[in-house]
Amino acid sequence: MSQRPRPVRLEDVARESGVHVSTVSRVLNESDSLTVRPETRERIVETARRLHYRPNAIARGLKLSSTGALGLLVPSLRNPVYAAVIRGAFDRAWEEGFVVLLAEDTDGGRGQRAYESLVGEGRIDGLLIASARPGNPILERFAEGIVPCVFVNRRHIGSGCNASMREEDAGAAAADHLIGLGHTRLGQVAGPLVLDTAHRRMQGFAAAVAAAGLDPPRVEAAAFDEPGGSRAMTQLLRGRDRPTGVFVSNISQAVGAFAGARRLGRAIPADVSVIGCDDDPLADYLDAPLTTIRMPLAELGAAAVDALIAQLRGEPPKDVVVDTPPQLVLRASTGVPI
Amino acid sequence: MSQRPRPVRLEDVARESGVHVSTVSRVLNESDSLTVRPETRERIVETARRLHYRPNAIARGLKLSSTGALGLLVPSLRNPVYAAVIRGAFDRAWEEGFVVLLAEDTDGGRGQRAYESLVGEGRIDGLLIASARPGNPILERFAEGIVPCVFVNRRHIGSGCNASMREEDAGAAAADHLIGLGHTRLGQVAGPLVLDTAHRRMQGFAAAVAAAGLDPPRVEAAAFDEPGGSRAMTQLLRGRDRPTGVFVSNISQAVGAFAGARRLGRAIPADVSVIGCDDDPLADYLDAPLTTIRMPLAELGAAAVDALIAQLRGEPPKDVVVDTPPQLVLRASTGVPI
DNA sequence: CCATCTCGCGCAAACGTTATCGCACCCGCT
DNA sequence: AGCGGGTGCGATAACGTTTGCGCGAGATGG
């Protein structure tokens, strides 16, 4: 029954170095009024280190009415794409002295509950929302304006605080690659078109196809998961005039799309070229290895954190777009049409 | 420049209902000394609801010296298996009135930093560690005993507070399935054997093989990711006496193993049967659809939260094993040997 | 030698809660 | 009428931190 060690408080450091707590606080915060003798400062810093003092975030949060924590709502933890965004956000937040609290905003109210706990109970200073979608109750709560928010990846039009990437360029890069290979009948497995991200990706793709003077691509919208990709690909590959080159919007969709093509007996890339969006280690291990458009996901996470912290500092919210261009990662799933 | 609405405090509710804050606090906490007139209670509850009062978790945490938050450290957010564990943990925690703060404990110090922020700064009451592995610095910090901990999935031998599943039975179920199909030369793509989980899975597999009177399986240990699975499978399938049935320990490894077999020109299941561990939607979309052993992952997450909360209530720590048995999910990647 | 100024630090109040104590008041009993 | 004991609630002190204010002491100037 060993006791848990009582955490060391400001008062312990103060007593040990023979000064008042307020002095310790000021010294350790390196604050403005540095009117402290160097030797005293030295002594305080030294004992603080010796005792392994760490300020209590709860007490600090109460006094400062700011917790040093940011929330991050992602739509699904099963989607490896978000792992990259999350890492980018965590790392940048840490650099800025913040901790980020991650929650999954799936159907079933997990996101709502997280919102209640994190925002409603004052546990965070700001919220990163990567799970925006029309009808998501979180959007109504956003309007209440309890905490500053930034929408990540999926924009919330009119919010004035979106962090996004060059989705149109991603679609265009995919189209250009397929067109460059000689494909003339193109198709797209898009995401749910109510999602801003999916919509822009589609528009960029369609615009590039139009610019090349080709017939508009056939588009099948589908959920961002394996079943969605499978069903959409099956639709695209059925019937006459089927596309020889298909742009798929997400790695999970790509896995499903591969399965769909396989079931119809179509080989990749011999019968149909497939290019994916969002690069992921998994792409190397598909059959065939998936050519993708790499998106700056970690940078997106970092940029979103920056934008949120700017708001916390009192700056007016603004939309930001990560300017790193989408980049083609060539593997084996695309080739010249037969 | 709309102002953020100032959150409603206990005092607002008190003023509005004409009583003192302490009374409001007692009423809303339904506490012991219910010596309050029903009409007063009614009035307080009513105005609290009307004003949408939510207690401030920070102030509450400071006073009670308990935050109502649990930490959860997972080794990788790219592994879909953990999504299931996380959901189980989140949901159970919510039922018990706790919020869980999720962080990734990858190489590169993310876990360390999370530990510092969450435990060191007193942001959480207890910690769930799913990222235990020999040499992980978190294990030394555990020994300091600042907060109660529970090790999830990967046990920390000797800690006395592990939550795990019937890994040996998983290995045995996989072996039994392959043996039942008539396979006599078995192999295993194991996880890193320094990990308790991987080791037990391997032992269960080996024991079942021995019990059937077969030669001991060839085991290739590998990282729990696609490259690991690919390399290990390649090793297993090279040389004479290669196995006709292989047990792979994880869905990511399975993807890699499929790729490895493909590169050697071996068909699944015609040339080699593959059975995976941990069921996941992805399994349906592999070529061939992957037969797996389903593990009770969400229940594991829930059980770990239960064990941690028990410790917070002052009960002595104890090891728990989720008793739901591993279950065969038959798909197309296993068949009778040629 | 006293007034003034600056330096170096202590004092105490707050942040929003909860918990312990205690004080009125009302009821019933003698 | 006086007394005792509940009943119903208010005052208050914390929890660990930050911060405006102020006070003593030494330095400086007249």
Quick summary of this structure?
Chain A has 338 residues and is α/β, with parallel strands linked by helices. Chain A has helices at residues 10-17, 21-28, 38-50, 57-64, 80-95, 110-120, 137-144, 167-181, 196-211, 226-237, 251-263, 297-312; strands at residues 69-74, 99-104, 126-129, 149-152, 162-164, 186-190, 218-221, 245-248, 273-277, 291-294, 320-321, 327-329.
Q: Would you list the SSEs of chain A in sequence order as H and E? A: HHHHEHEHEHEEHEHEHEHEEHEE
% residues in beta strands of chain A:
5-15%
Count, helices of chain A: 12
Largest sheet of chain A: 6 strands, parallel
* Alpha-carbon Rg of chain A, integer: 25 Å
* Relative helix content of chain A: 40-55%
Order of strands across the main sheet of chain A: 2-1-3-4-5-11
Alpha carbon gap, first and last residue of chain A: 74 Å
| Largest interface by Cβ-Cβ < 8 Å | A-B, 63 and 64 residues
Low-confidence stretches of chain A: none
Oligomer: homodimer
What does the model show?
The structure is a homodimer of 338-residue chains. The first copy, chain A, is α/β, with parallel strands linked by helices and 338 residues long. In chain A, 43% of the residues lie in helices and 15% in strands. Chain A is built from 12 helices and 12 strands. In chain A, the strands form 2 sheets. Chain A has a 6-stranded parallel beta sheet, with helices on both faces. The first copy, chain A, has a 6-stranded mixed beta sheet with strand order 7-6-8-9-10-12, with helices on both faces. In chain A, helix 7 links the parallel strand 3 (126-129) and strand 4. In chain A, helix 1 (10-17) crosses helix 2, helix 8 (167-181) runs parallel beside helix 9 (196-211) and helix 10 (226-237) crosses helix 11. The mean pLDDT of chain A is 95. At the A-B interface, helix 4, helix 5, strand 2, helix 6 and helix 10 of A face helix 4, helix 5, strand 2, helix 6 and helix 10 of B. The structure holds a DNA duplex (30 and 30 nucleotides).
